[in-house]
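The pair is quoted verbatim below.
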Amino acid sequence: MQNHDVPCAVCLVRNRSVVKMFPARKTCYSGWKLEYRGYLMAGHFNFQGPSKYTCVDHHPDTVYGGSSDMNGKLFYFVEAVCGSLKCPPYVNGRELVCAVCSRK
């Protein structure tokens, strides 16, 4: 996926009132339906400009012809840091997963 553009996806889920991203989860809570799961990603902490945590699908698509390496907004894996997070269950330096879930 390095140097490839990723398409943006907005979940439109019929008959569901809420779509929410849950960081550090592979599954949804009871009563929620899994739409997709992946890895929590964001901009690099050393780079200027705002960044937002985003759940990137574990099997991401790329934009056709979008590999010109222009270094626009870059996504990096969010990794667990013990002390900020309780270890265990988290593992220091391991990428965090995420789940996008919906419910009525």
